[in-house]
Amino acid sequence: ADRGLWLRTEGERRQQKRGDMAMKGAAVRAASVLLLAQVALAFTPSLLPTLRAAPALRPAVAPRGQTLPKLHTSLQATVSDKAETAAETKKQPAPGRGVLKCKPIGVSFAAPEVRLSNEGMEKVVDTTSEWIRTRTGIEARHVLDGTEDVRSLAVRAAEGALESSGIKAEDIDMVIVATSSPEDLFGDAPSVAAAIGAKNAFAMDLTAACSGFLFSTVTAGQFLNNGAAKNALVVGADALSRWVNWEDRNTCVLFGDGAGAMVLTATETEEEAGLLGFEMHSDGNGYCNLKLPFTPEVDEIGEGVKVAQGTYSPISMVGKEVYKFATRDVPRVLEEALVNAGVDASEVDHLLLHQANIRIMEVVADRLGIPMEKVLHNLEEYGNTSAASIPICLAEAVASGKVKKGDVIACAGFGAGLSWGACILRWG
């Protein structure tokens, strides 16, 4: 009888010990999951509602009606609080990257007359119209044939933007030409300013590849915001058809030539402003994935004296890596710009991305929760026009009445460098 009593007592003691160990194990597992959640939230704050409801994060049920150790509850509360704090911190606007006291008031574009359709590309390189369209969304592109040049396209676009804005050329205080393919390596902006009659403006070129127009818009906005200028003209102009390998079907089918221009004017108050927030980044570690490098040719010009002259090689692109970069970093930078602007994605009327690939646009829109009907695109007709793509697309949307005064437009440029950025505009 004594032995039987001892066995029952020992059995209950061991069962109690197993129960305690199970409770502690549940607490540790829950704490571990919550710590992982905290890390995840640091990168993806939007997961917070899902994580709150996840079964793995719910308080464990104590076996045999007993109470779980306080360790579990305290860890859960502490880690949950830290996770929420991390998410809230991530959503804080960056200093100095919010409203700039200026607004866009006019836009126009110019494209070469020569139109090269996908069917025409079939005669140039081993490809098909269907292959190009399904992989990129591009159906045609416009290319310079020697009767026009980048500068003349920029001038036409600039004159149209001035007319659209109602601002006189002599009232323009600064001109920025964003281009990676100027007529003159020393810069086209001063000659463009002279051609349109902007005699009171200072002018400069800005090179940031396909991010160039967006970076230039923010740069002009800084001058307008601080009172150094009243009116600014920003031009994006490129002719990358000059720099493609026409035997490489992976790149030559993508690019077209063109120019777009936009006039911005300073506002008295932030309430009147139309540049609501922005964010910009670059990472030279990705340079190798998209480049147009100089190729030196060494020449001995005298005894023991050598110099390296040469030209630029055709565009080189690792398409898979560029696609991963764009679909990863463009949604992030747009979210950052929206936070800096104090605007929710649901308040965006139009999403305007650099016109590189329709698949990229679909992924970015989906990750932001913006329907495709809000996405502005015209790469079907013009292809990838580099720094010109955003203003060309915006100009057509404004001219057609799709973009109206007061509309909020989330813009993003991305490309070689690697560089990427976003700004939130309110039109007019």
Question: What this model shows, in words?
Answer:
- The chain is globular.
- Mean pLDDT is 86; it is low at 39-89.
- The strands form 5 sheets. A 5-stranded mixed beta sheet has the order 1-7-6-4-5, with helices on both faces. Strands 8-16-15-13-14 form a 5-stranded mixed beta sheet, sandwiched between helices. It has a two-stranded antiparallel ribbon with strand order 2-3.
- α6 crosses α7 (189-196).
- It has 428 residues and is of the alpha/beta class.
- The protein has helices at residues 2-43, 48-53, 70-90, 118-121, 129-136, 150-165, 189-196, 212-225, 249-252, 319-341, 358-368, 379-382, 389-399; strands at residues 102-110, 115-117, 140-142, 174-178, 202-206, 231-239, 257-266, 275-282, 290-291, 294-302, 305-312, 316-317, 350-353, 375-376, 408-415, 419-426.
